[in-house]
């Protein structure tokens, strides 16, 4: 039994022994225990809305908070005095007369409620006159009104049919914009673009035909306003993260990547959260230019502290997921990190095809060919934590193959090679699995690409050969699959 269950049982015993028939009770226990009762025992516990007097003005916090109550032996819910609980997440606070509702205003659910209320009022004021104009014009028109996804704030959208000439003008203007500015065609389906256009149409209905330059902000204005919105959302995230860290349901995923064109490195942090309703969300938390002198573990830790400082994130109360790069492993070794499986899968494939397995032999004569200097070099590779890249071969234990002096004669090797080549010719490569393809497949791809035969192979097999590169994940398996599919055309 963990501590939370023990607290739950102890508090239940206290409440059962002190049950009363009055309209409210006051018992000395912790707010955290009430939150557990509300979550785990909804039949006996609930949150009642604040009873309001129509002649008294109450704070907005009571739209988010209520008063916790417990059912007594008579089946009547009794309010627990001195506490206030969130109607959404059951977070409970102590309510004091000297502090009023100030502690409740710092709760994340209340901040979110106030932000949504403010946005709703702004949009409502901006579109109220446009909505009135649209409704008035509909009385003399046969067009119908309907709500679409863009009218989530109550804006009535007029559904009308444009003429073919009007539609063609819109299409021509859209194509001209996409081609001149080199924008992808999929941008026309972006909900953000359509939302902006809808707002401009609403303003046009209010003010008439106005210049677009007086509506759309410039680059500098957008940049400045983005800073304001960033600060607002960062404060909201700080309060949310504080609660998530209490239950350790916050996970961060750091990663380093390099821009070889600008010769710059960046630290990116992705965030995954699970709230009290078991709702999962994932988003990019931060992206900073990596300014440390190198990518050693201690410097990565310093960069992480700087990146997480604005969000008040403590790694001790946070889950960490990273790759198996030796620098990341050393950086987070005290936080029990989870390691990304994609890096391991990538290295498994590389080992299967292009690396020799470690030869375990008890032959004492073979060890004579391995010098002490070589042993030291191998240990340096295994134990190094100064890797410039945070993944790759450090993902798994890896011992480079060391060539031993061969005592066989060259003519024996030549005959074996000829025998192997003749046996491979008799095999139907179309029936082979990817794992059964020969190691020389990579060399074939390089030669074919240098000879310029890739286009000819694509015209014959409808599949082009893909080359494996170390900077693109899972490109090795894609390379082998392309060779497998286009084997007949390549053989010709």
What does this molecule look like?
Residues 163-218 form the Hermes trasposase DNA-binding domain. It comes from Rotaria sordida. One of its GO terms (cellular component) is nucleus. The chain has 492 residues and is α+β, with helices and mostly antiparallel strands. The protein folds into four domains: 3-103, no CATH class; 112-216, no CATH class; 249-405, Nucleotidyltransferase, domain 5; 411-491, no CATH class. Helices cover 44% and strands 13% of the residues. The protein contains 16 helices and 13 strands. It has helices at residues 3-17, 31-40, 102-105, 108-138, 164-181, 191-207, 219-246, 297-308, 326-331, 341-354, 372-383, 410-425, 441-451, 454-461, 475-485, 487-491, and strands at residues 24-25, 45-48, 65-71, 77-80, 83-86, 92-94, 145-146, 157-158, 250-259, 264-274, 280-289, 319-322, 338-339. The strands form three sheets. Strands 1, 2, 3, 4, 5 and 6 form a six-stranded mixed β-sheet that branches. Helix 4 (108-138) packs across helix 6 (191-207). The relative contact order is 0.05.
Q: Nutshell version of this structure?
A:
The chain has 492 residues and is an alpha+beta fold. The protein has four domains: 3-103, no CATH class; 112-216, no CATH class; 249-405, Nucleotidyltransferase, domain 5; 411-491, no CATH class. The protein has helices spanning 3-17, 31-40, 102-105, 108-138, 164-181, 191-207, 219-246, 297-308, 326-331, 341-354, 372-383, 410-425, 441-451, 454-461, 475-485, 487-491; strands at residues 24-25, 45-48, 65-71, 77-80, 83-86, 92-94, 145-146, 157-158, 250-259, 264-274, 280-289, 319-322, 338-339.
């Amino acid at each position: 039994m963990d501590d939370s269950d023990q607290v739950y049982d102890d508090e239940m015993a206290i409440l059962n022994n002190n049950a009363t028939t009055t309209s409210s009770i006051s018992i000395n226990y912790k707010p955290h225990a009430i939150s557990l009762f509300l979550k785990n025992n909804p039949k006996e516990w609930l949150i009642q809305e604040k009873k309001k007097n129509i002649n008294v003005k109450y704070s907005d916090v009571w739209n988010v908070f209520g008063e916790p109550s417990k059912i007594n032996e008579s089946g009547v819910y009794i309010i627990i005095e001195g506490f206030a609980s969130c109607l959404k997440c059951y977070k409970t606070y102590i309510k004091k007369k000297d502090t009023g509702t100030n502690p409740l205003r710092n709760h994340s659910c209340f901040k979110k409620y106030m932000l949504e209320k403010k946005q709703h009022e702004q949009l409502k004021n901006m579109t109220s006159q446009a909505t009135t104009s649209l409704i008035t014009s509909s009385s003399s028109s046969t067009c119908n009104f309907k709500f679409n996804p863009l009218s989530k704030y109550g804006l009535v959208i007029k559904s009308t049919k444009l003429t073919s000439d009007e539609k063609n003008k819109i299409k021509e203007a859209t194509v001209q914009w996409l081609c001149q500015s080199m924008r992808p065609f999929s941008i026309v389906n972006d909900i953000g673009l359509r939302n902006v256009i809808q707002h401009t149409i609403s303003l046009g209905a209010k003010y008439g035909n106005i210049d677009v330059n007086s509506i759309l902000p410039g680059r500098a204005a957008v940049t400045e306003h983005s800073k304001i919105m960033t600060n607002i959302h960062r404060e909201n995230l700080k309060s949310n993260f504080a609660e998530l860290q209490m239950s350790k349901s916050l996970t961060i995923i750091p990663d380093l990547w390099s821009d070889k064109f600008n010769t710059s490195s960046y630290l990116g942090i992705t965030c995954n959260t699970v709230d009290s309703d078991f709702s999962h969300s994932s988003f990019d938390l931060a992206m900073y230019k990596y300014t440390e002198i190198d990518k050693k573990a201690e410097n990565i830790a310093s960069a992480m502290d700087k990146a997480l400082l604005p969000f008040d994130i403590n790694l001790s109360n946070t889950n960490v997921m990273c790759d198996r790069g030796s620098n990341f492993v050393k950086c987070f070794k005290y936080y029990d990190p989870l390691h990304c499986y994609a890096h391991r899968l990538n290295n498994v494939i590389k080992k299967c095809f292009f690396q020799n397995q470690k030869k375990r032999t008890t032959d004492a004569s073979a060890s004579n060919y391995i010098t002490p200097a070589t042993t030291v070099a191998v240990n340096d590779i295994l134990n190094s934590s100064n890797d410039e890249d945070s993944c790759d071969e450090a993902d798994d234990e890896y011992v480079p193959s060391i060539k031993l002096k061969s005592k066989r004669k060259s003519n024996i090797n030549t005959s074996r090679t000829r025998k192997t080549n003749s046996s491979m010719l008799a095999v139907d490569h179309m029936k082979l699995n990817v794992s059964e393809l020969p190691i020389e497949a990579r060399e074939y791809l390089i030669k074919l690409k240098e000879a310029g035969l890739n286009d000819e192979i694509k015209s014959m097999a409808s599949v082009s050969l893909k080359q494996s590169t170390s900077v693109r994940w899972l490109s090795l398996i894609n390379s082998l699959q392309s060779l497998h599919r286009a084997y007949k055309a390549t053989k010709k």
